[in-house]
Write a structure and sequence with these properties.
mainly beta; 71 residues; globular
């Protein structure tokens, strides 16, 4: 997995979190896991005001997603 690449979520939460952003350095490729940040659909959170400096928004296949870092 390459750092900052986006991958389809293979897990059970694909309906709410369709993509994952790999943020792990390639220096740790020997580990059997990697660090990812969930990408959630912006349209699923219409009343949320996001600071794009803290929560960047990405467009994937014509739809907007944001880095979900918890509640």
């Amino acid at each position: 997995m390459a750092r900052f690449d986006v991958y389809a979520n293979p897990g059970k939460h694909v309906s709410t979190t369709p993509y994952l952003l790999n943020v792990q350095s390639d220096l740790l490729d020997d580990l059997g896991s990697c660090v990812v940040i969930p990408l959630r659909r912006l349209s699923d959170f219409p009343k949320v005001k996001l600071s794009t400096h803290l929560t960047p928004v990405f467009e994937i296949n014509g739809e907007s997603y944001f880095l979900f870092h918890g509640y």
